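Second opinion, please. Please look over this fold, written as C-alpha cells:

===
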Amino acid sequence: MPVPVPRQRAVSAAETTHGPDLTLLVISDDAAGTFTVPELSSEGGTRVRVRTARNLTEADRLLTDHVDCVLLDLDLAPPTGPRADSRPDGDTQARDELATLQHVLRIAPRHAVLALTAEDDAERAAEAVRVGAQDYLFRGELDGRLLSRAIRYAVERKRADIAQHQLTESRLRAQENARLERGLLPTPLLEGSDLGFAARYRPGRSRALLGGDFYDTVRTPDGTVHAMIGDVCGHGPDEAALGVELRIAWRALTLAGLCGDQLLATLQEVLEHERQSEEIFATLCTVDIAPDGRHAGLCLAGHPAPLIARSGRAAHLLPYQDGGPALGLLPRARWPRRQVQLGGSWSLVMYTDGLIEGRVSAEGSQRLGQDGMVAMVNGQLERGLGGEELLDAAVTRVRELNGGELTDDVAVLLLERDEARIRRRGRSASRSRPGGPDPSPGGQRPPL
C-alpha cells in the first residue's frame, strides 16, 4: 500500500516570481486517499505548481502546453478500447501493465513523464523508462526534495530529447534536400569538345542549393556546343522546380536537334503548362557554337546579352538589339537567331541578372548594371585571371560591392577557347601516335 506523506502546501503567486514556474500533472486514482504529493522544495527560485487528474479522461483535458511534467501512477486503470501498444510480439502481460503509460505517452508526446510505482516493482519501473518515461519513482521513497529534483531532471531530459530529435530530423532533411538539389544541378556534356567550361551558382534563398536560375551545356554529335542560361522570375522553391523542368526540357530538345526559335517556342509551351500562375515568366539566353569554335548563333528571350573577351582586346557585350520577349509573356512570340563571330581565342561569359542587380555600395541604391560588370570583368582580365579564377573573383567582387550576400539568385557560366593550346595539343597527339604525324589535312584532333 502507498505510504502517506505530508500534503502539498499552497504556493502563493508572490512566491512564483523568483523564476519560471513548472507545472506538474499528477495522474492517480487514489480512492483511499492514502497518496498525496509531498511538499515540493524550491531550488534555484523555481516553484512547481500541481494539478491532479483521477483518470485518463481528466488527464486529457488538463494536458495543456502549460504542463511541464506528468507524474503517472502505473497502477491507474488502463484505457478502454484499442491498446496503445499493438505490437504483435513481446510480453503481453508487460504490455498490459504499461498500457496506461503508453496511452499517456501518446497523448503527451512533448511532455516529460515520471512513472510512479511500488518499491517491489523495480522491473516494471525499468520497463517504463525503456518504453519512454524519463524516470521512475517509488512511492515509499518519495519526498519533496527527491520529487522536485526528479521533475527538473525529467523536464530537462525531455527538452534535450526533443531538441536532439529535431536536430536529427533537420540534418536528415537537409541531407535529403542537398542530395535532391545536387542531383538536379546540371552535369555538362562536353566530351570531345575543345572548349573549357566553368560555372558558379549561388541561390538567393537561405540554406538552399537551388534557386530559380538555371543553366546547361551539351555537345551534340555534329560537334556543336550548345549553352543556355535562364532565370525564372522569383527565387522560391516553386521557381526552382520550374527552372529544373525548363533546363531538362532544353537539354532534351537540344539533343533532339531543335535550336533557335523552334526550341524557344517549345520551351514557352512547357512553361505555360507547368507554371503556377500566368504571371510567371522566364528569361533565357542560348548560344550554339559551331564545331570550329569561331562563330555562334545567339538567341535572347528577355535576357541580358553575354559578354565576350577576345585575346588582346577589352571585353564587351554581344549584340542584343534583336532579342525577343521573355518566355511566357506573349503568345506566338518569335526569337530571332543572330550570327556572331567569336574568333580564334575567346572567353564567353553568360550570367543571370542577379550578378548585375547588386548594389555598388552598401549604403546606396545604385546598381552595378551591365556596364559596371563589363568594367569589373576587364579589371579581372587585366590581372591575368581566367576560367575558374575569373568567375570566383567576379562573384566575390560583386558581393563585396553589395556589402554582403546578394538577395537574388546568381548563375554565371564561362566557355572559353584557347587556339594556341589546341594546336599544341594537336601536335603533341600527332607525335605520340605510332605512325607519327597524320599527313592527312583532315586528321581529327583528339578530345580534350
User: Anything to note?
Assistant: The first strand starts at residue 22 and ends at 27. Residues 1-19, 82-93, 437-448 have pLDDT under 50 and may be disordered. The CA atoms of residues 14 and 47 lie 11 Å apart. The two ends are 87 Å apart (CA to CA).
